Amino acid sequence: MRKAKIAMATTAAFAGLTIGVMNVHADTVNEATAKQAPTNPLSNATTATTSAVTSTTTTASVTTQQTTEKSASTSSSLQEKAATSSTQTTASNASDISATTQSATSASSIKTAAATQKEAATSAAASAESKAATEYTTAVAQTKAQQVAESAATSSAYAQKINNQKQTNAATESAAAQKVATAQAALSSTAESATATPAQQTLDSDPIIYAKTAGHTISTEAQLPVVLTKPVVKKSDVASDYGYYGYINTNNSDKTAVVSTTGLTKQQQYELADYAVTLVNSYRTAIGTETLKYNSNVEDATIAEAAIRNQEQLDFTHLSFNETEKAAFSAQGLQLDGENLGVAQATAAESKTTILALKVALLNAITEMVYVDDAHANGHLHNFVVADYMGVAVQANASMTYPYQLIFEVASAVPSSHVTQKAAIALTATARIKQAQASANQQYTAAKEAVASALIAQANLKLTNAALLNALVTQRDAALTRLATLQQQALINLADKYQTQKNNIQTKLAAQKKAIEIAAASQIAQLANANKRVSRIKAANISVNERGRVHKLDGITAKQIIYAVPTHKLTEISSYALSNETRQPVEQTGRKEAEMWAKALPQTGDDAGNTLSLTGILLAVLSLLSGTWLLHKQRTFK
């Protein structure tokens, strides 16, 4: 009985002291191994260190022993295993320390490597920027060259269009100007039905000087007066040379027939006589005298008398009233009573003489004979007033002083003549001139309207042409402006693209540098952690030795309770720096047994996989003390 009590005390003491550290889990090291750093240029610097720490963790792990009841010899076997495990662990830790120390890269070398890599990244970025700059410069040069070509092509195309439009404008405007000139010429060849008036006479000059001025000129029949107008004269006995009206063939406005110096036709003679008689009748009517008797008898006799005058070579000389000269009238049952002579003075300066020019000469001669005849004792006026019959003819003879002499023959009917006087000839001069005036007015109005229309058309054409030309210029300017905008935007796009490339390069460089710095910092931290682990392993060797001494208790047989204790925790255990956190035992002898021990004995430790029985230690110490006391008592009883 006493031996049994001693055995129980010894077993309890031994069980309390033999807490085996047979299953060490270096969780911190495992975590460092599991969380591998991303691949980077600095990763090789700490590969050996990480490997050494991992090896230490693996080597430090020992198999947990099952709890058994052994005899003193079994206890001795456990002591030997503990000693062997302690020795192996110490040797393994020493090897780990050596490997870690040899493979660890110093922090300065890591920083140097990082700086080298950053320099390489910076150099690569500078090269990329240089390439981008070269490409940008080339692209800008090419784009500008293309833009210059595009602008030149656009300008050239519009220049051709503008030039074509200018040529078209010039052609159409020239045609319009020609139409205006034609219309103006037509207007100049016509005149309003403004009847001419006689020019005034002064003491020292003849009216002929003023007859060529406006209001006194006659260029169309429509301007011929059909009624005599008394001219303003200072002295009626001053010769005027019949210059009260001026004949001017302006722009060939005179459309009457041209007469010949060899003689006028009978029709021409009758037309001129019609106008002359009309003028004389206007004066006779004005003074209350009957109009002249004018028939073919007197007119044919007068025309015959003009031929007789040429035969007798009478050059502005009156008849002698001989039988030969009177014969022409006698043949017509008429008696020749008197003669007025005039000349076509106004036609002397004209290269061609027309019916209108001779009518103007008759107008000047009759006006002179009626109103300014004091120099001739008013003999011409007397003949015009007393005449019963009067015929008018033109003596044409180019060899005479006056190629066209105006003959006014005054006659009366012979009552005893067997020749019967024919009916009076109806005068048509007034109606003819009025018709000419109406036609002239129409022509003049039409000509004015034609000129106005041509001018308006010309102005409108110029406006249209200018608008077409301006439209092309506007289109050209708009096209060039639009093209310049697109070209500028193209250059801006190139600049933006280049700036984006630069920004991307700088962003990438910054990211690379940041990654290098992070990798370096991580490696330096890993190196520091590795050095800390080396220090812990060294400290753990002492704890392993102490553990070996616990297992050297000889002759104690008890049920062993083994818990997994990390090697780097042994120092903390030996110094009683234990945590209060509860942990679970290793499932060495089966889950049910582990759960049973976990319920029986509270656990503590820093990690869930690394457990230690604080209560077991206390129970072991109490058991040891109780066993020692019982042993001491037993010896005392002996």
TrEMBL record:
Region (Disordered): 34-105
Coiled-coil positions: 469-515
Signal peptide: 1-26
Keyword Membrane annotated: yes
Ranges of Low complexity composition bias in the record: 45-68, 82-105
Bilayer-crossing regions: 612-631
Keywords carried by this UniProt record: Coiled coil, Membrane, Signal, Transmembrane, Transmembrane helix
InterPro entries: Surf_Exclu_SEC10/PgrA (IPR027607)
Biased composition (Polar residues): 34-44, 69-79
UniProt protein name: Cell surface protein
Annotated organism of origin: Liquorilactobacillus satsumensis DSM 16230 = JCM 12392
